[in-house]
Amino acid sequence: MASRISQIAAHLNYPTGLLAGQVAIITGSGQGIGAETARLFANEGALVVISDIDGTKAASVADGINAAGGRALAVPGDMLDGGYIARLVEQAAAFGSGKIHIIVNNAGYTYDGVIHKMSDAQWDTIMDLHTKAPFRLVRAAAPYFRVKDGESRCIVNVSSTSGIHGNAGQANYAVAKAGVTGLTKTIAKEWGPAFGVRANTVAFGYILTRLTQAKEKGAFVTGPGGAKIALGIPQAQQETRDQHLDIPLRRPGTASEAASAVLAICSPLFSYVTGQTIMVTGGRNM
User: Quick one: a GO biological-process term for this protein (predicted)?
Assistant: First the structure.
């Protein structure tokens, strides 16, 4: 899809890229969908700020982009730390000569549990990560979006089909991702009329990432207080899901396909689209 977008861009006379000269903060971009989004943005001329809690992975993505001729800056840190968010915005603006054009709120993970066994820590961690952190970042970046310089400004908040339809074992995640939609629409209504800021949500379905691989593979993140949070789907559930019978395209999506959707939303091709939730699901739940 990315190459097709580039072809369209060339036809529409965007020879230096769909996002030429724009400064983009992409959270959770040390791996997976975030890293693919960063690479695609850089290929389209954006100056990309790599935000990830894992400094080694963030630096690797930034180094790869710079080695390929793009422009990227790694600013690692924890999105649950308000001080880090202020530093992220400050360094992004400095990298962009005083401007920020795009925010992609992608950082996150799951901390699953059925309702009657879910702890307050599980609930609070996911709510803070998926709703408070994106809000804090948007609020901190407000001076760079509430401007009238004639340049494009766009915010993409990453959600999930869990936030649209709910999902057993994910009450915290479902509520947080549903909240993202409300935040998106509010940004569009507050900052669209006077400043032309576009805000959209992208809701992913079954995308091949560490969050959808077999839990038995042992992927985990370290949460607040040093809690070891296992990621993925139990093997038995994975095997059933891998039949893809509820997906019209009969397969999961790739991280590159997910990232391509984010690129399209941020590009001039979506210049009259705001306040919407774009479903990237292979047709699932339509």
Answer: monocarboxylic acid metabolic process
Among candidate residues 243, 46, 68, the one with its CA nearest the CA of residue 151? 46
Rg, the chain, Cα only:
18
Nearest Cα residue to 51 out of 94, 90, 106:
106
Give yes or no: 173 in active site: yes
Alpha carbons 250 and 253: distance in angstroms, whole number: 10
Amino acid sitting at position 274? T
The two three-digit tokens of residue 237, written as one number: 């559930």
Give the residue carrying structure tokens 């960063």.
38
Of these residues, 14, 109, 144, 173, which one is catalytic?
173
- For residue 214, the model assigns a pLDDT of 45
DSSP assignment of 50-114: EE-S-HHHHHHHHHHHHHTT-EEEE----TT-HHHHHHHHHHHHHHTTT---EEEE-------B-
Check: pTM over 0.85? Answer yes or no.
Answer: yes
Domain residue limits, the chain = 2-280
Nearest to 197 by CA among 160, 149, 158, 135: 149
* Residue 25, strand partner residues: 49, 103
Amino acid of residue 204:
F
Structure tokens at 123: 């609930």
Which residues of the chain are modeled with pLDDT < 70?
1-15, 210-221, 228-242
